[in-house]
Amino acid sequence: MQYLRANLSKKVGRLVDWSGGFWERRYSAEPVLDDTALVGRLRYVLAHGVKEGLVEKCAQWRGLTCLPQLLGAARRLFHWFNWTKRWSKRGSGSRAEGEGRFAEQWAEPVELEVAPLPCWVGKSEEERLPG
């Protein structure tokens, strides 16, 4: 997690021209010991936007969410920028001047695949909702 957080903060910091601390606090791994705790963590993540009062329902949240995939067969495609490929071309003369790290030639499509929680396999949407 230290490696992930350090590298993510450096890359995002460069994108938004931000230096200094990026994360609010140190990483803390908390064990998820049972299905109830797992469902609670998922509900917490999906509640972003609702708990801040920005939307009434989590389905209205326009930010990054996996809710459409959890509710049906929706597909989400993202661009993965293969910077290893970009750096391997460095110095070969094949890169155009001024071409950035987010150029389309480095982008590879990646589909976000989401599966139901193991405790929800075979249950209907109504059965997954709180009583």
Describe this structure in words.
GO terms for molecular function: DNA binding; transposase activity. It comes from Cystobacter ferrugineus. The chain is α+β, with helices and mostly antiparallel strands. The longest helix has 15 residues. Helix content is 32%, strand content 9%. It is built from five helices and two strands. It is globular, with a radius of gyration of 20 Å.
- Euclidean distance between termini CA atoms: 36 Å
Helix-strand sequence: HHHEHEH
How many β-strands, per DSSP? 2
Fraction of helical residues? 25-40%
Approximate shape: globular
**What is Rg?**
20 Å
Task: Look at the helices and sheets and give the structural class.
Answer: alpha+beta
Average per-residue pLDDT, rounded, comes to 82
Largest sheet strand order: 1-2
Total number of helices: 5
| Approximate strand percentage | 5-15%
For the largest beta-sheet, the strand count, sense and barrel status come to:
2 strands, antiparallel
* Sequence stretches where pLDDT stays below 50 over 5 or more residues: none
In short:
Helices cover 32% and strands 9% of the residues. It is an alpha+beta fold and 131 residues long. This is Transposase.
Which terms summarize this structure?
two-stranded antiparallel ribbon; alpha+beta; 131 residues
Question: What is this structure's SSE topology?
Answer:
Blueprint: H1 2-16, H2 35-46, H3 67-71, E1 76-81, H4 83-88, E2 107-112, H5 125-128
Antiparallel strand pairs: 1-2
GO molecular function: DNA binding; transposase activity
Protein name: Transposase
Organism: Cystobacter ferrugineus
